[in-house]
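Kindly draft a sequence, keeping tokens residue-aligned:
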Amino acid sequence: MPKFQNIKLTKEIVLRDPVHEYIHIEDQVIQDLVATKEFQRMRRIKQLGPIAYVFPSATHTRFEHNAGVYELTRRICNIFAQKYPTQRSGDGLWDENNRLLVECAGLLHDIGHGPYSHTFEHLFGTDHEKIGQKIITDPNTEVNQVLRQVAPNFPELVASVIAKTYPNPQVVKLISSQADADRMDYLKRDAYFTGVTYGEFDLSRILQEIRPFSGGICFSMSGMHAVEDYIVSRYQMYQQVYFHRVGRAMEVMLQHLLERAKIIYHKGVLPVTPELANFLADSWTLNDYLKLDDGVMETNFLMWTDANDPILADLANLYLFRKPFASIRIDVETKNLLPKLKDLIKQAGFDPTYYTDTNSAFDEPYDAYKPSGKNANSQIEIMQDDGQLIELSQLSPLVRALNGTLQGDERFFFPKIMMSNSDEPQIFDPLYQQFQRYIKNGTLRYLRKPRK
């Protein structure tokens, strides 16, 4: 492992943070990276996107999250250096020469995120991890220029950590595993800013019990219950925050809004800012991407509220002024009823292409802990007193019970007016009433045949 050119600050910079209390910047390269225009862009991108429409205080940004991941990474490096320093090659302990690399990777791990990241990626075919690696390795970015001051190949090494191709698994798994600095920060941070307690777990205990081994990172047996608590907190956050039906309704509406905008743009009749135009034209560059933020998107949405196209204008108004779609739970059996419901919605004057959708929480971009089976991800290892590693769910009945359980649901989204029960007679009342006959307790059901 080569040693890098690392200049320590003569005076440490301390940032106040409501989650970790303090974020300590000790190295010149970290200070310089934070000051780059690519990193400062993160201030203008909300961490949870449309979920802020559900939890009003969840307006924290990816800037704070990236800084928080750096701080947790720094603290873990301190623990490893103090308690588990390498003694000889191949002993599976911590090589302090990796510190600067993993701290920079932690700071920059989400730098490729755009506004409304996952919805935007689905529509425009972008990938925030690959774009992040491009930002880091492109010689025209300020981030790349800062990293090259450490070593000529340092940008490529940082990018390889984020790409999970760096050969030392300890470095990779510190910021990309099932119990990493990234997840620990976003759970604590998202819980704090949404105002819920589901994401609370004993972070200090987890940090006390984390340790390196040759295959990555693990936890001491005495810390098992703290890690167990972390898994349960994750489960609760998925159910109560990330999978919230109104947040998903806003995501669905946002997707249809952008889909409609793309169609209208190609007809040549859409007012749009230059920053977004190249994405609608499928001809964007990295420079175009770096000009996008929440403010740019919302400026376009505001313009579209007065668009000549009635569907685009309506969707822009519904989204921008928080008028979410209603939704009901569906399953494999009742999916056969959706064409009938869509037909009723069409008769009520709504184009089902833009005013209906199905959305499965199982496909949300938040990964539950699944150490085995289909869609398995990296395991959380617990180290026994004799050095043996055992996967967490093999030791914890609680985690084992959660493993493989059905998390989330599948929902059908539609205009809220279809659930209308107005006291005043309305022209579409018979349609609304017929629609509502298929719904009971928020779930789609088959109609019972009348008794003879």
